[in-house]
Amino acid sequence: MMNDIKARGSSEPLAPPSRNVLGYLLRLGGLAIVDAFAVWFLYVLLRDGVWPIAIPVALIVILVNIVNLNERLAAMRWQIPAVSIILLIVVFPIAFTIYSSFTNYSSGHILSKQQVINQLEGRLYLPEGGPTFAWAAYRNPDGEFGLWLVDEAGNKFWALPDAPIEEAGAVSEDIGPVDDDGYPTRVGEYRRLTGGDLFRSLEALNGVRFGEGDEAVQIRNTRQAATLQPRYQYDPERDAIIDQLEGTVYFGNEERGYFISEEGQNLLPGYQVMIGTRNYERLFTSPAFRGPFIRIFLWTIAFALLSVVTTFALGLLLAMAFNDPLLPGRKLIRSLLIIPYTLPGIIGVLIWRGMLNPFVGVLATTSQSIFGWFPPFLTDPFWVKVGILLVNLWLGYPYMMLISSGALQSIPEDIYDAAAVDGANAWQRFWNITLPLLLVSVGPLLIASFVFNFNNFTVIFGYNEGRPPIAGSPTPAGHSDILISYTYRIAFEGGRGSDYAYAAAVTVVIFAIVAILTLIQFRFTRQWEEVSESV
Amino acid sequence: MKPQKTWLAILLLLFASFALMACAGGADNAGETPAEEIEEEPATAPTVEEEPVEEMTEEPVEEPTEEMTEEATEEEEATEEADDGAVVRDPEADLVIWADETRAPVLQGVADMFEEEFGVVVAVQQVDFGEIRNQVGIAGPAGEGPDIFVGAHDWLGELVANGTVAEMDLTGIEDQFEPSALEAFTYNGILYGMPYATENIAFFCNPDIVETMPATWDDVLALSEELAPQGITGWTIETNDPYHWFPQITAFGGYVFGVTEEGYDATDVGLDSEGAIAAAEWLGQMVEAGFVQPGMDRNTRLALYNNGDLACFNGGPWDLPDLRDAGTPYMVGPFPAGTAGPGEPFLGVQGFMISPFSEDPLLAQAFLTDFVATEDVMFQLYEAGGRPPAFLPALERVEDEDLQAFAEVGANARPMPAIPEMSAVWSAWGNAQELIIGGELEPAEAMMEAAQQIRDAISAANE
Amino acid sequence: MSDARTMPGSEQARVRVRMGRRTGSISRRRRLGLILRLLVAAVAIVFALFPVLWVISASFNPTGNLATQQLIPRNPSTINYQNLLTNPLSPFGSWLLNSLKVSVLTSVLGVISIMLSAYSFSRFRFQGRRQLLLGLLLVQVFPTLLMFVAIFYLFQQLGNYIPFLGLNQHAPLILTYLGTQMGIQIWLMKGFFDSIPRDIDESALVDGATHWQIFWQLIFPLARPMVVIVGLLVFIASYNEFVLASVLLKDVNQYTLMVGLYLFVSDAFTQNWGIFAAGALLGSLPVVIIYLALQDQIVGGLTAGAVKG
To answer: Cβ B39–A48 below 8 Å, yes or no?
Structure first.
């Protein structure tokens, strides 16, 4: 009993939600609980300095509170589940990506400055001529460690943390009987650690300085202990790292994200810094941008557009063909036709890629034996595009068939009868009645399909990684590359490994482009007016 | 209209705060130490996500409370352990190792023995080989990374630049490893890994078709001409695979990066050198004659060979199972020679590395040097992976003739450059190869274009 | 005249019926149409299913080389299926269960949230409504390729405080799928709600019902066909997703099906297409079964005039 035409005209908003005392109390109760949790959670987050998570959480909680307490915003309460999730899962990463595009987050710059300092200061080295010892570890009942050292000459020593190293002979403690490998089993209350005990204690023994000052010895590996020195020292006043071994001073450089010496030597690893709009500048001024960019951009639009048009055309055709309930086996036919949609996309692409292989693919060999020729679907710049569209058609038409089916059946027959009476033929009926009515309902889905294919990395990359290559391009680019696969390559196969920050900048630009295109399409299909009609 | 403006203001505020938050997040990272402190306080309420839904459904308030208590107990039981028992970084493990699916079972055996004998818990996590490379950079600094991970030597450039690999100390056992393998894992003069396997490609021919393996690349050309009337391709190569193409290039004197005392020199790109161009022109001849055709990939190449339609190809130890299963006869030998001598392939070395974010580097070191660097374990790794061991005692035990042949060719192999600039090379180089094979560009032109693309990419990245 | 009214269907059929009545050749025209349509069906089915037959064939092919097999494999064997189901390093059963768990939960939670949101957009007028609608669409448009770093960071942090939201759990995956899929579905659902006349709501309001009651007791039953469709779309999208799942899940036992399958072909040198094909087929079964089981509902629901702007 859905008489849609009548409903479509009505544009009066409903009365706002009414007050319901029990519901109100329950809502207040729930709100109180949410607030209690939020207070705890935010406290913990802020205490640990996890700002990026604290802020969206706080915002969500504030929104929830506002919306529940303000009666005028009662309608918004229904939006809470969806909008909170989207805020957390989508808006946060978008903000993160935008932020990253202003940094130099890439290979060689993934740690923060403090992390780099920590790591550098943790590096040790053995000064020239420094003594090395074989060692055995001991532990007393209080859990304190001691080290028995034997140097290269065979002299034996006993070392405790922060106490002078004693020669074996001078040790006051009572030394127990000697083991097979020449180490005493016990020194005073200290018992020797072996096997599992030793291995479990390694974590605690790491970095412990046995002995005093410059003489102190550290365990280096299972065979050696030595007087290790920290190689690098950070001087906060000058913001510099000093190499103790060679004396070079590296100054922190916030523009480049490295500690750099006066001769221009970069100290690895580098760290993350904000670099402002440099990624964008690079994008717009680099030869990569001007080179194949326009061509790839045009193909991306063409690919998305053609994908939508072809899948919709085929889907609609099939939907119309099998709309008749008297058609025998209709249900079976429909079920079979939907199957490509149920296979995961990447699998479909790979199967087609195999079938189109010019040497051993089944389609190629069959075609060769019948026609003596087979289009070079994987190697020719034109045919590669045809091939991709073909694969995308196969993957996408069932979805279009599904939605067209439903949309078709919701068009009332009276219209057709009236048109037939007026003498309209089948084609006129289709073009002037069916299609427009269809587009109204599936319009947003077509736009969504366009957007999906604009960024359809899977199909492009799975088919042929964007190849065959474009000759004469300043950066590697392929004839079947779309913006996003091209971006991926620039970012992750650039001159220095992965450049996430740069990829982020390009992503933002792509997003801007697609957003604009989407808005334009919206106006074009008058969806916007549709919405405003029912507003 | 005022209310409209308030909404716009709120939305703007939202976005501004997110941007601010992200900034603060970036700055804040500086304050975090690699080892994350895990909170032990119990959660007192369900998650933010669930709350609103519960509000909406007007369900009795009791439900949230129940969840609260449930969560509290769960929290207290095991801070980092997840509900389903699967862990990211098992806090109860003393050592965490990331290994790919081929190596993981062997290491698990060692880990089990280690735990039994010493009571030290070693957790082996199976991670896809490629994923290990990506994830150590993300998980490591975040405290979720492994102590030990397996990897390839050419990752070093990136890992060292990122500070995600620690020095390896093999004092006392260095002489038990293949010197070229140790060299491959040395970067800027420092050793960063303990190698366990080497890999390189060699030249394959079908003894049923070819009596003796061609000695020079000109012989290969002649062979192809001879076999063409029979419908057999003498030699072909993947369309976009510089790794497999390399030995033919080196045979003519080509190279990818020049070598100095300190290792590979990124300013000396060799793809448009005389030798490389000569090699490309040879390939161009094969293309013109129709022997090498576009659209070739590894699977197709193997299929052709197994069908008896291909006489020779450049292949690796990973091709052996395929050939053996199909029962096609094969010979493995050195590469044909060009004007500069026999072709030399790339050498790839796989090994174990230690993370600088490990809390127990001594234990990690000990585990590797004392328990993995043994003949038995190294031999098991060889059996699992099918690659010649880099550990000499294990290498001596290998009886597979084919692998010995690979090792022989590998003696002259050139370690793949580990410098980060290498990532700019593959695409450009592969594209040049594809353009030559597709007949779109003259060989010299293609190589010069590729070399220029690489130089541009490197200089752009180093600005 | 009764024929025309009681036979809903394409306009072609109707026209032919009319013309047929006039000229007396009903059956021939109809038969021609039927034959034509069956031809179309045959061609379409071959197009649709040929690659699928290929996958089936690959799954029974013991040598596992994708490029070279024939339609009927040379030595058919079930070894791929055996390897798939019995290998402890690749727990197919767990993967399947994980995928189902994640997809079903996403579907259920998603449908509820979507309906609430769409109903609000359709029935209420509040400040910022148009902006919010547009915003939902625009965030959907953001390329998700790079989102994974942020998402990884988000759940890695959250996991420190709320364990089941941490890495390697399924809850973050569910949340992520919800976040990335709800935008467009809200639009779809809103369009559908718009087609349900407001009179129903208004008369119930007059009777003193709350919006909540109207929603659950009146509108929701009417929306059932759309619920099924949206649920199915969300299910399929979650089930087939691979990239984000591989970022968030680290332990083999936690993998969803797609991530697990990828293991078989990820290492370029030990690809096993046979097992991959077997896994892909078995893995697609749930979706196929669900679609077939719900087919009547879907089609029936759509017939009742559901999808309408």
So the answer is: yes
